[in-house]
């Protein structure tokens, strides 16, 4: 039977500049040992998780403490692994996953600010290179917006692709582009290229908010 391992972790983001200027106070604090305390006007409660990262936690601390390295190792061993970021708009999902929004091919983020994705890529490449030429890596990047699936890596204007099902493949996206990569620079460029094509709009909490769900898939194939 299939085995599912669920390890929820929480990251508390610091106050934004706008929140600090208007005098807002932090009401969420890490107590250590995987617990987080919420203390507000009508709420005073403690929650438990597999891991909790307070506002001062670094990107590296989140990567190492959330089990991401173990997930990469499991993926190479043949397990299907998923990282799902969930939270309110403006809660810091994009920063945790990808690092600063301002980065581009000409202005990459400082190494210490790189997110879980880039760190996972580096770990995966390191592990695959230690296996010699036995592994082949490729990536696909999809956006789901208004119940339509769009390929973020295909050249030209993104267009809706049909979702299909077959007995051998299960659910799959027809005509989805799958791109091989062998270096950290190559996968980082593909990630930025796809992310810049996502649908965004501004609102009060985030001037560059993603208006869709994105699914980046790394395919690890054994040549043996």
UniProtKB/TrEMBL annotation:
Superkingdom, natural source: Eukaryota
Binding site for ATP: 87-94
Chain segments annotated as coiled-coil in the UniProt record: none
Subcellular location: Cytoplasm, Cytoskeleton
InterPro entries given in the database record: Kinesin-like_fam, Kinesin_motor_dom, Kinesin_motor_dom_sf, P-loop_NTPase
Pfam families, A to Z: Kinesin
GO CC annotations on file: microtubule associated complex
Family annotation (Gene3D superfamilies): Kinesin motor domain (3.40.850.10)
Keywords annotated in UniProt: ATP-binding, Cytoplasm, Cytoskeleton, Motor protein, Nucleotide-binding
Main location: cytoplasm
Start and end residues of each Kinesin motor domain: 5-224
Gene Ontology molecular function terms on file: ATP binding; microtubule binding; microtubule motor activity
GO biological-process terms attached to the record: microtubule-based movement; mitotic spindle organization; spindle elongation
Family from the record: Belongs to the TRAFAC class myosin-kinesin ATPase superfamily. Kinesin family.
Protein name: KIF12 protein
Protein species of origin: Steatornis caripensis (Oilbird)
Gene that this polypeptide is encoded by: Kif12_0
């Amino acid at each position: 039977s299939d085995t599912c391992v669920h390890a929820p972790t929480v990251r508390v983001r610091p106050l934004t500049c706008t929140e600090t200027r208007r005098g807002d106070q932090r009401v969420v604090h890490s107590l250590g040992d995987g617990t987080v305390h919420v203390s507000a006007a009508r709420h005073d409660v403690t929650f438990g998780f597999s891991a909790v990262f307070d506002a001062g936690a670094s990107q590296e601390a989140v990567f190492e403490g959330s089990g991401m390295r173990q997930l990469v190792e499991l993926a190479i061993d043949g397990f299907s692994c998923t990282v799902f970021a969930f939270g309110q708009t403006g809660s810091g999902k994009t920063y945790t996953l990808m690092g600063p929004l301002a980065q581009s091919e000409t202005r990459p983020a400082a190494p210490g600010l790189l997110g879980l994705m880039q760190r996972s890529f580096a770990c995966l490449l390191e592990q695959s290179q230690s296996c010699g030429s036995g592994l082949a890596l490729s990536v696909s990047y999809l956006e789901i917006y208004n119940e339509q699936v769009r390929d973020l890596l295909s050249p030209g204007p993104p267009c809706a692709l049909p979702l299909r099902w077959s007995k051998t493949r299960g659910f799959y996206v027809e005509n989805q582009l799958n791109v091989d990569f062998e270096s950290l620079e190559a996968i980082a460029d593909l990630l930025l290229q796809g992310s810049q094509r996502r649908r965004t709009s501004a609102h009060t909490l985030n001037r560059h908010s993603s208006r869709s769900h994105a699914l980046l898939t790394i395919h690890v194939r054994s040549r043996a």
